């Protein structure tokens, strides 16, 4: 009588399957290691290192604090200069103030500031002019560059007191 070998697994089939699985696992491990190492390798032709892109950073500049009080004499002004770096975006200046009498407030470029110091009535031609009022809310978007925030007493009363209600701040975003 001849014995049948149908119930025993074919040894060659088992060995071939194990070798195939081993090769696939090695290939996957090699692919993962190669991919991770390529993210931070230096390109020899350019000398640059591939790194993840920078994340945006939000900056805040406080020009006047909440509750700050200052006096301006007739025909004088109080001001502060500030600059926003090139490459900055989403630039917003906000805040609010009140005053005893009417004052004029504007955000001026260096050219406008130069004209203002020679002729204070030129303040009204500023793109960012907040009128001859006893208070206002400042809320505008700017572009990168140099600016002056000016509070001017045009001479209605001898001295005017300005109170900052909400801080006057500049916020902008810049890539790092």
In short:
This protein has 176 residues and is an alpha+beta fold. The chain has helices spanning 11-39, 110-118; strands at 56-64, 69-73, 77-84, 89-108, 128-142, 145-152, 159-175.
Structural notes for this entry:
The chain is α+β, with helices and mostly antiparallel strands and 176 residues long. It has two domains: 9-50, no CATH class; 56-175, GOLD domain (Jelly Rolls), CATH 2.60.120. The chain is 22% helix and 47% strand. The protein is built from two helices and seven strands; from the N terminus they run H-E-E-E-E-H-E-E-E. It has helices at residues 11-39, 110-118; strands at residues 56-64, 69-73, 77-84, 89-108, 128-142, 145-152, 159-175. Strands 1, 2, 3, 4, 5, 6 and 7 form a seven-stranded antiparallel sheet that branches. The N and C termini lie far apart (84 Å).
List keywords for this structure.
176 residues; alpha+beta; Jelly Rolls; 2 domains; seven-stranded antiparallel beta sheet; 2 helices; 7 strands
Q: Please tell me how large the radius of gyration is.
A: 34 Å
Q: What's the name of the CATH homologous superfamily of the largest domain?
A: GOLD domain
Total DSSP helices: 2
Quaternary arrangement of the chains shown?
A: single chain
Q: How much strand content do the residues show?
A: over 45%
Distance between the termini: 84 Å
Low-confidence stretches: none
- Give the mean pLDDT: 83
Q: Tell me the name of the CATH class of the largest domain.
A: Mainly Beta
Provide the helix percentage: 10-25%
